[in-house]
Amino acid sequence: MNKEKTCITDKLETSCCTGCGACINCCPVDALSYGRDPWGYYIPVADKEKCIGCGKCLSVCPVYNRKENGHFEQPRCHAFISGNADELNASSSGGIFTRFSQAVFEKGGIVYGAAWSGTLKEDHLVRHEAAETETELGKLKKSKYLQSYIGYTYRDIQDDLKAGRQVLFTGCPCQVAGLKALLGTEDPNLLTIDLLCGNSPSEQFFRGYLSENFGDGAIRYEFRHKENDWRSDCVCITLENGEEKVFTGRFEDDFQSVYHDHTMCPPHCENCCFHSVPRQGDLTIGDFWGIMRTDPSIPGQNGVSVILVNSEKGQEFFDRFGKREGDYLREVPLAWLGGNGYTGKQSRNFASPLRDRFYEDYLKHGFTVAVHRAAKTKNRNEIDKWFGYFEVLLRWMQKPDPVGWLRNRVEECGYERIAIYGMGEVGRLLYEKMKSASIPVEYAIDKRPQKVDGQLKVVRPGDELEPVDVIIVSILSEFDGIRKLLEKKTDAKIISIRDFLL
Q1: Rounded Cα gap, residues 149 and 146, in angstroms
Q2: Domain end: 298, 323, 342, which one?
Q3: How far from 175 is each of 315, 346, 354, 375, 381, CA to CA, in Å?
Q4: pLDDT tens, 303-346?
């Protein structure tokens, strides 16, 4: 048998590997082990002397061997806020993970999820571990914006299921897909929950950030610290001397500055094939960002969880889930979720146009230099952007009849269905002038979707895009990256506002 054709390491590009560990857990002779690529992402490494060429690793790889899961195309969507203040404050969002875990513990079950290693000095800073009591559950709570080391968790789950125990597994959609591929069949005692995730940078990046900013002094790190209410970019670092440092936003913290704009986004997250519906888990949980803009009456200042019910098994579990006194639980339209977790059908994740440069600089100069070079590029782009806007607007306004010219330009090009990407100052101005010229705009695309004037529909870049003739990009400095993103999602013509107006 030709082993070269039956091992996952020879078939799957490293950049496509999610590090889910299914191949390593399934190998009957342990010929596969965990390695890392140059940026620290987990990949399988093969010992060809041990390999027997059975091909099991190929059959269970959820990327190489994608399978339909029969889950709902239109999951039911719910908003949840725990009525228990302690549970709410101990969670990243609304506290639903705690409640679901409690329901499993009541049946004598076991919960698996991502946990910190404990001291920030051990190998595998974030790894999947088990919890069998509410005390142990504490380590699995709260977001960890890092790739989790699965280790041999899937084998442990197999043993638990064979023993007849109820198991709840939580993880990124790719990890849920890996577990299910390894098991092969649905087990009635297994409930899976996938997370609404944006991207999972490597532990190696995070170690560089810690060592270059705090030396060996950091002993605890908390993403999504709630000192300033519910927000995505507040962190708390505890040092060995007991001092706590709280940083909020990209201007205060280097890691936040390159996480939230997807500058660290790994290629396998950028090209994720697991985050859209039908989802991988029986249930999906995460932050319900933007829900209070949709309905300001929702009391979500300290966090709101979203729950998606993706399967019959998930529905059965959810129906048994009991709302307690003080809880907020409400079914809402799936459309309210917007682009959270890129859940919409055919939605796509994205990487910053600076990602490849950041990765190169990291290998040559380390984390901090790579961050600051990315920041300088962003600042330079910002200056170029405003000069570009000035040029475009000046030359356009110098036309004898700018609004009439705009109407004629659209007619000459034959555009009947128009969308605008970017609703900053220039995008809004373009929209207002198009309204003045009686030119309909189908919708706008922006990372922060909100109604512009109560009429225009605004979607996120990751949402499914309705067919249009042209998308006019108002963000000059990032046009090339935006165009590449949009070309993966639509057949519409994509032009910059400079090319459109000049």
Answers
A1: 9
A2: 342
A3: 21, 20, 27, 32, 37
A4: 999 999 999 999 999 999 878 999 999 999 998 988 788 787 76
Same domain, 47 and 142: no
- Single out the residue of 300, 286, 291 nearest to residue 342, CA to CA: 286
Query: Taking each helix axis from N to C terminus, what angle separates 402-413 and 425-436, rounded to the nearest 10 degrees?
Result: 90
Same domain, 101 and 178: yes
Query: Residues 89, 180: one domain?
Result: yes
What per-residue confidence (pLDDT) applies to 1?
45
Percent of the chain that is helix, strand, coil (3-state, to 5): 35, 20, 45
160: Cα separation from own chain's centroid: 29
One-letter identity of residue 24 = I
According to DSSP, residue 352 is labeled -
Count, residues in the chain: 502
Of 308, 342, 376, which one is at a domain's C-terminal end? 342
Asked if residue 130 and residue 54 are part of one domain, the reply reads no
Joined together, the tokens standing for residue 162 give 């064979």
441: domain CATH number?
3.40.50.720
- pLDDT at 364 exceeding the cut of 50: yes
Residue 172 domain boundaries: 76-199+269-342
Count of domains observed in the chain: 4
Q: Half-sphere exposure of residue 221, counting CA atoms within 13 Å on the CB side?
A: 27
* Residues 290 and 238 both lie in one domain: no
Confidence of residue 386 (pLDDT cuts 50, 70, 90): low
Residue 465 corresponds to which amino acid?
L
Asked if 415 and 440 sit in the same domain, the reply is: yes
Q: Cα separation of 444 and 452, whole Å? A: 9
Would residue 69 count as lying in a domain?
no
In degrees, rounded to 5, the angle at the alpha carbon of residue 474 between the alpha carbons of residues 473 and 478 is: 75
**Exposed / middle / buried, residue 301 (Cβ in 10 Å: 0-12, 13-18, 19+):** exposed
> Greater confidence, 404 or 146?
146
Average pLDDT over residues 12-41: 97
